[in-house]
Amino acid sequence: MTQNIYDNPEFFAGYSRLDRSVEGLEGAAEWPALKALLPDMRGLEVVDLGCGFGWFCRWAREQGAARVLGVDVSEKMLARARDTTIDPAITYLRADLERLELREAAFDLAYSSLALHYIDDLPALLGRVHCALRPGGHLVFSAEHPIFTAPANPGWSVDAAGRKTWPVDNYLCEGPRRTDWLAKGVVKQHRTLGTYLNLLLRLGFALAHVEEWGPTDEQIAAHPSWAEARQRPMFLLVSARR
Amino acid sequence: MTQNIYDNPEFFAGYSRLDRSVEGLEGAAEWPALKALLPDMRGLEVVDLGCGFGWFCRWAREQGAARVLGVDVSEKMLARARDTTIDPAITYLRADLERLELREAAFDLAYSSLALHYIDDLPALLGRVHCALRPGGHLVFSAEHPIFTAPANPGWSVDAAGRKTWPVDNYLCEGPRRTDWLAKGVVKQHRTLGTYLNLLLRLGFALAHVEEWGPTDEQIAAHPSWAEARQRPMFLLVSARR
Fold it and tell me: Any chain B CB within 8 A of the CB of A208?
């Protein structure tokens, strides 16, 4: 079972203060790039795996999605999602994604933002997602980039020449990584980029786009601190079709 | 035009002493994994982009390929390839891959081992390769992994805890990297993994497999020093179909 860190009070308090929690999708640096991978939402049946506060579910409906199912393991996040949603076409479901059952061929789009790197049995989840999509249906997700999740001791270091570098090790050693981010002992699952992609290919997905996200020049002009993401990617964005 | 470093006497002498130059394909750590991505070779028309000493061209014929065209920019390498090949179905062509013209729909397999990271205008080359493949034809290549090519100052460093790490920077800053490997000032082109894959997808290739190569347990038992490749991948292996 995936660790439910979002219901840890310290983690939840910290997460609630992030730009992406306060401002929603527009507060997430990678959102414009992820949005560009999405199909025309009009009339689509959508499932959001790890929906959090429900920002994407509500956005999908604003764009014309027919129905949206938001799934999350966090009681605290879903409580806020429900409090801020008045739309009978959005359903929130509390479930561990590791055990989620989805109807077959019921969705046109499966979306997931920064949730899949918490999943231990990703092959099983993606297999169920493949079954739950209609033929031609879309899978669009972001996850923490393997370069970001790999290190035993993640964090910038400064080399002899004064250059900031990201010390990669254990890249090909897949498995859990315990890190301290917003709370102590957050468990993420490191897997290589090849593993993510080959999982999709073996399930029968056709890959459409693979993006190692970095900020645009305009974003850096507005947020100079984001420039460090060009040194090593933090997010992986993928779109694929059943 | 791509730098023709292989005809630099110092580089050529050093390269000629590598296991992969002395022992051929079996001397290359990643060969078993790359071989596993190849189709049944019987009856295929094959082009090898960056054929070097011609080891793969000869192997392809041993496996039943109908005809093999080996292309390389290095005069010294092709001279040795010609000296060690007695097979009228293998043709060696000296050409800069940046300017190579290939007949349309003439090949069943385009193969390239550790050459594409030297190519400046990779979109143009891969576009010509796509045209040169028959529908359903295969592209199988290896290249230096972007984690390996990214750093301004590539090389292991040892962190405070005594752990060997690979300091990544400039990952999203694509372009030339000058390194000293076998000779001074070898120019490689760094591009992200996403860029490699999206180039293929936009050309109409379907991705079949993406591997960030690491040694197997058996390989490490036989060659303990190879274990460091698990800390950060050195090679990217890709197979795709037109």
Answer: yes
CB of A232 within 8 Å of any CB in chain B? yes
Over residues B106-139, the pLDDT tens digits come to 999 999 999 999 999 999 999 999 999 999 999 9
**Distance (Å, rounded) from C-alpha A235 to C-alpha A113?**
10
Confidence of residue A1 (pLDDT cuts 50, 70, 90): low
Q: Is residue B6 part of a domain?
A: no
Which CATH number characterizes residue B132's domain? 3.40.50.150
Instruction: Count the helices and strands in chain A (H runs, E runs).
Output: 9, 11
Let me know if residue B39 belongs to a domain: no
A161, A155 Cβ separation under 8 angstroms: no
Burial class (CB in 10 A: 0-12, 13-18, 19+), A119: buried
Domain count, chain A: 1
Asked whether residue B29 is assigned to any structural domain, the reply reads no
* Average pLDDT of span B149-160: 88
Residue of chain A whose Cα is closest to the Cα of B158 = A167
Burial of A174 (0-12, 13-18, 19+ CB in 10 A): middle
Tell me, what's the pLDDT at B1?
A: 63
Our measurement of the distance from residue A163's CA atom to the centroid of its chain's CA atoms, rounded to an integer in Å, reads 30
Which residue carries 């190849």 as its tokens? B38
Q: Mutate which of A158, A163, A164, A172 to test chain B, going by most B C-beta atoms within 10 A?
A: A172
Tokens read off for A124: 């099983």
Residue found under tokens 């059952």: A101
Please give the residue range of the domain that contains residue A99: 5-241
Instruction: Reduce the DSSP state of residue A138 to 3 states and report it.
Output: strand
Q: In degrees, to the nearest 5, what angle opens at C-alpha B62 toward C-alphas B56 and B65?
A: 80
Q: Assess if residue B38 is contained within a domain.
A: no
Q: What distance in Å separates the CA atoms of residue A171 and residue B90, rounded to the nearest whole number?
A: 39
For helices B193-203 and B122-132, what crossing angle results, to 10°? 40
Tell which residue, B54, B14, B2, has the closest CA to residue B184.
B14
Chain B hits for A197, CB-CB cut-off 8 Å, are 197, 207, 210
